[in-house]
């Protein structure tokens, strides 16, 4: 399980380049309203030992100290990325933290993009959407096109509804990034290449028209066993109908 400081890195991200991470969840725990079978942070049940969320003041102080240090070192940051051990928008100070981060970015790293990796479950909340729409890269997840299929791979908290997520994402008017993990699991009866998953997912893409789509596969140890990854060639073939329709799709395979 990943255990991060509030501000960590920078690390190299296959999707975002040199990325300075911000973890808005507990440093020694995990809080998420998904319990994805492929999550590199492990199962939710194994991360309940710490429930303390960092405050906006702590995030601002830690981020400023790190940006000052990197600036003095001459280290370029491509992305300031909200990720961490769970869903970052669950932190109630998320909107204020976004405002602080944008101000610090302008002061210390004006060429860096601000990115948020989210499972998109809280986009329907006005304060969350209003914060997300300010960042350069709101990267929103949809792995499965129906509630029944999402239950197999994402194991969301009660109340999750794919249609509500899709309708909420329409507020971006296409100015967001959609991310999707592709994998197979016999135990969980999920296969991203099956017609029930792939065709429904492609129809959601067509409905939302995101400016970019990030398709990737598992790259690190997963809490569920026996998961099978897809090769970049397989994923490219699967999404080829969308590429031919003009969608901007990044395909990222596992990195050795």
Could you please describe the fold and organization of this structure?
A hairpin with a 3-residue loop joins strand 1 and strand 2 (17-23). The mean pLDDT is 92. Helix 1 (56-73) runs parallel beside helix 2 (94-108) and helix 2 (94-108) packs parallel to helix 3. With 256 residues, this protein is an alpha/beta fold. It contains 7 helices and 10 strands. The chain has helices at 56-73, 94-108, 126-132, 147-153, 162-169, 195-208, 232-244; strands spanning 7-13, 17-23, 79-83, 113-118, 137-141, 177-185, 190-191, 212-217, 228-229, 249-252. Strands 1, 2, 3, 4, 5, 6, 7, 8, 9 and 10 form a 10-stranded mixed β-sheet that branches. It is globular and about 50 Å long. 32% of the residues lie in helices and 21% in strands. 45% of the residues are buried.
Looking at this protein, list some descriptive labels.
alpha/beta, ten-stranded mixed beta sheet, 256 residues
Write the layout of secondary structure elements.
Elements: E1 7-13, E2 17-23, H1 56-73, E3 79-83, H2 94-108, E4 113-118, H3 126-132, E5 137-141, H4 147-153, H5 162-169, E6 177-185, E7 190-191, H6 195-208, E8 212-217, E9 228-229, H7 232-244, E10 249-252
H-E order: EEHEHEHEHHEEHEEHE
Based on CA atoms alone, the radius of gyration comes out at 18 Å
Helix % is 25-40%
Strand content: 15-25%
Average pLDDT works out at 92
- pLDDT < 50 runs, ≥5 residues: none
Total count of helical runs of at least 4 residues: 7
* Coarse shape: globular
Biggest sheet: strands, sense, closure?
A: 10 strands, mixed
- Which structural class matches the secondary elements? alpha/beta
Oligomeric grouping of the chains: single chain
Distance between the termini: 19 Å
Query: How many beta-strand segments?
Result: 10
């Amino acid at each position: 399980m990943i255990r991060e400081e509030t501000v960590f890195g920078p690390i190299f991200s296959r999707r975002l380049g040199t990325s300075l991470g911000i973890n808005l969840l507990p440093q020694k725990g995990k809080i998420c309203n998904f319990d994805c079978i492929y999550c590199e942070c492990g199962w939710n049940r194994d991360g309940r030992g710490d429930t303390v969320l960092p405050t906006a003041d702590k995030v601002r102080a830690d981020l400023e100290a790190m940006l000052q240090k990197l600036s003095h070192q001459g280290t370029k940051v491509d992305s300031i990325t909200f990720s961490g051990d769970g869903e970052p928008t669950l932190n109630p100070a998320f909107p204020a933290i976004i405002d602080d981060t944008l101000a610090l970015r302008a002061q210390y790293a004006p060429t860096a993009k601000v990115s948020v990796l989210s499972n998109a479950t809280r986009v329907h909340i006005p304060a969350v959407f209003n914060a997300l729409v300010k960042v350069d890269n709101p990267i929103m997840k949809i792995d499965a096109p129906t509630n029944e299929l999402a239950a197999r791979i994402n194991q969301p908290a009660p109340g999750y509804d794919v249609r509500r997520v899709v309708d909420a994402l329409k507020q971006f008017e296409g100015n967001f990034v959609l991310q999707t993990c592709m994998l197979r699991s016999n135990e969980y009866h999920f296969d991203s290449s099956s017609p029930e998953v792939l065709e429904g997912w492609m129809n959601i893409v067509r409905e939302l028209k995101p400016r970019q789509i990030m398709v990737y596969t598992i790259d690190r140890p997963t809490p569920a066993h026996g998961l099978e990854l897809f090769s970049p060639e397989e994923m490219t073939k699967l999404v080829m109908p969308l590429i031919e329709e003009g969608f901007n799709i990044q395909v990222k395979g596992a990195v050795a």
